[in-house]
């Protein structure tokens, strides 16, 4: 198993100032909404998108990050093959730790929330409403909460989330140009 060295946010920021390239491996929508200043996108693990066309430099320090560091750990072996030699690092704690350290982040709130966050909001909201309606109007509304729960279990087991597919086609998600 390949392991890559970690850099703290402060050390990574210093290396960035010295010319290191910050590379975000998250999905396109996440990157467009919020990213480390002067970073580039090389999306890994996003089955809907091929890695976006940047050429990673040879003999230059490259620091990879995701939201919390978990995806970087998951894809460490793949990341290690992208940058030859001893020039690849992982940002410890990811974007969350970078922000907690008070380092510069580019935020574009006009971009939609990531689709999985939209799913969480929609599923949670519908479940909450159906439970309230079940207690106040008619017990049949509890079946809506059950249906949503079953859909979430199915999505977790199969990897297919119908609500996410539906939300990807909503007008606010078309704005960013993510879906063609």
TrEMBL record:
What are the record keywords, sorted?
Membrane, Transmembrane, Transmembrane helix
Q: Which Pfam families does this UniProt record tie to the protein?
A: Rhodanese, YgaP-like_TM
The record places domain Rhodanese at: 16-107
What InterPro entries would the database entry show? Rhodanese-like_dom (IPR001763), Rhodanese-like_dom_sf (IPR036873), YgaP-like_TM (IPR021309)
Give TM regions: 119-138, 144-167
Protein name, UniProt field: Rhodanese family protein
Lineage of origin: Bacteria, Pseudomonadati, Pseudomonadota, Gammaproteobacteria, Enterobacterales
